[in-house]
Amino acid sequence: MNLTTPTTIGELRRLIAEADDLAGAHVLWIDTGGEVHLSANDGNCDDGAVRLRFAPFQAGAGMVGPMAAHDDRLIGKMYFSILHHWLHAGDAPPGPLDAELDDFEREGGWNVSAKAGAHVMNMAPRHGAFGARCH
């Protein structure tokens, strides 16, 4: 899943499904090129490649793995948080940024379908462009 090209919720769903929730904490992060990663929180992240790093998902919390990937509400929250923070990262100074999953519901909500392929987003914050196409 790369945020500089059109992306879908299905891509995030597949990334989350591949992780083992009981194997330990996981970190969702985005590199400087816009590629989204999910890594075991082993402290070996290359900070030179990290642009955005979300707070770790604790082992057994249900934030990663096949069950989490089927939770439309959770996946929708992750997807739009990723897009939101990536968009604003273009305005921030260079270097790694820490982020939290946003609770868009407290701000009126984003009532959208989290079905695979339902949304295609193209994010290019460094060029001031934001394009979105919804099916």
Tag the structure with descriptive keywords.
135 residues, alpha+beta, four-stranded mixed beta sheet, 24% strand, disordered C terminus
**SS strand fraction:** 15-25%
Question: What series of H and E elements makes up the topology?
Answer: EHEEEHHEEE
User: Could you state the oligomeric state of the chains shown?
Assistant: single chain
Number of helices: 3
Q: Taking all residues together, what is the mean pLDDT?
A: 79
Give the end-to-end Cα distance, rounded to a whole number of Å.
Answer: 19 Å
What overall geometry do the principal axes of the alpha carbons give?
globular
- Structural category: alpha+beta
> What strand line-up does the widest sheet have?
3-2-4-5
Alpha-carbon Rg, integer: 14 Å
Helix content: 10-25%
Low-confidence segments, given as residue ranges, are 106-112, 116-135
Largest sheet: 4 strands, mixed
Tally of DSSP β-strands: 7
SSE topology sketch:
Layout: E1 7-8, H1 9-17, E2 26-31, E3 36-40, E4 50-54, H2 66-69, H3 72-89, E5 97-99, E6 119-124, E7 129-134
Parallel strand pairs: 4-5
Antiparallel strand pairs: 1-6, 2-3, 2-4, 6-7
Description:
The chain is of the alpha+beta class and 135 residues long. It has three helices and seven strands; from the N terminus they run E-H-E-E-E-H-H-E-E-E. The chain has helices at residues 9-17, 66-69, 72-89; strands at residues 7-8, 26-31, 36-40, 50-54, 97-99, 119-124, 129-134. A four-stranded mixed sheet has the order 3-2-4-5, covered by helices on one side. The two termini are 19 Å apart.
Q: Would you summarize the structure shown here?
A:
The chain is of the alpha+beta class and 135 residues long. It has helices spanning 9-17, 66-69, 72-89, and strands spanning 7-8, 26-31, 36-40, 50-54, 97-99, 119-124, 129-134. A 4-stranded mixed beta sheet has the order 3-2-4-5, with helices on one face. A 3-stranded antiparallel beta sheet has the order 1-6-7.
